Amino acid sequence: MTFYARLAAAGLLLAALGACSPEAEKKAAAPAPSPAPAAVVQANTYAFRIGQWEAVALKDGTLNLPAGNTEASPWANTAEVSALLKASGVTDDTVHLSIQPLLVKDGDRVVLIDTGAGGQMGTEGQLQASLREAGVTPTQVTDILISHAHGDHVGGLVVNGALVFPNATIRLSIPEWTALQSDADMADLVRAITPKVQAFAPGSVVAPNITAVSLDGHTPGHSGYEIAQGGGRLLYIGDALHSSILSVQRPDWKNNWDADSATAIATRQGLLERGASQNLRIYGVHFPFPGLGRFQRRDDGFVWAPEAN
How far apart are CA 130 and CA 56, in angstroms? Predict the structure, then answer.
């Protein structure tokens, strides 16, 4: 069974339960950044800037995974997971994973990074409402960058066999596209999006001032995206880290959603090291909304420091 099918089944289980639903690069520490420009918060959106560009976090929904239920949660060491959640202030013994695709506007170019779950997997399917709140229609989206082909990232591409973003070029890495094309469970999606797909070599510049970053281990061609414009910089980390608590504080824990666990663990550890050393601004698509913040060293590990909003 594919990840998509497993997580879809987990979503049904959660609904029944009543739930909503590369190597490390060691560089000298960068100087502290200037304060971020004021952001605008609405119900489903969080508007901010990356240099001179407008960006918007777009709420799509939430995955709520009972920590003790290994059919739903990818962390099988349930007692340790529950203890860390409790120590971090989580009172309901649940792993809460937000889903928030990222919108970036560059003049006439409107870039959407990932497309949410499309209301599947027990999620709320809020992306279209969030886009409207951000003042964008689906036909205005010119580029879609896909981190990887799991259902909570590509679920919003197609509805009833039709493209949701008909004018957008869809970009994902060549290894990810090859794997997606071979997945029989995703044949309908592949058929619908094929005319719009432009697959890229890992690490390519995929749009002006946006570079794909290989974050290996989760899927065959999993990519993050680094945006650098006008002195601003942001790294979209996809599913290199899922939980702002578990993945950050215990990157060594196995996550059963990773295709190659050893590589995924090394990627998490390298990303945390790089993020903290360079004081990188991070966008965690599954971190608490709006997913903006930085990794900070704490004792012999790391913690997530969200941006004030």
Answer: 9
Phi, psi (rounded to 5 degrees) for 216: -75, 155
Which of 238, 247, 276, 200 is CA-nearest to residue 101? Answer: 238
Q: Is residue 264 within 8 Å of 218, Cβ to Cβ?
A: yes
* pLDDT at residue 43 in the model: 80
DSSP-derived secondary structure letter, 138: G
Per residue, what are the HEC states of 165-204?
CCCCEEEEEHHHHHHHHCCHHHHHHHHHHHHHEEEECCCC
Cα distances (Å, whole numbers) of residue 215 to 148, 202, 228: 10, 10, 18
Encoded amino acid at 280, one letter: L
In the structure encoding, which two tokens stand for residue 61, read together?
Answer: 């929904």
The answer to whether 229 and 209 are in contact (CB under 8 A) is: yes
Helices (H) and strands (E) in the chain, counts: 8, 19
39 and 48 Cβ atoms separated by less than 8 Å:
yes
pLDDT digits (tens, 9 = 90+) for 211-241: 999 999 999 999 999 999 999 999 999 999 9
Backbone torsion region of residue 81, taken as left when φ is above 0, otherwise alpha when ψ lies between -120 and 50, otherwise beta:
alpha
User: pLDDT at residue 18 above 50?
Assistant: no
Q: Assign 15 to helix, strand or coil.
A: helix
Q: What are phi and psi of 306, to 5 degrees?
A: -70, 150
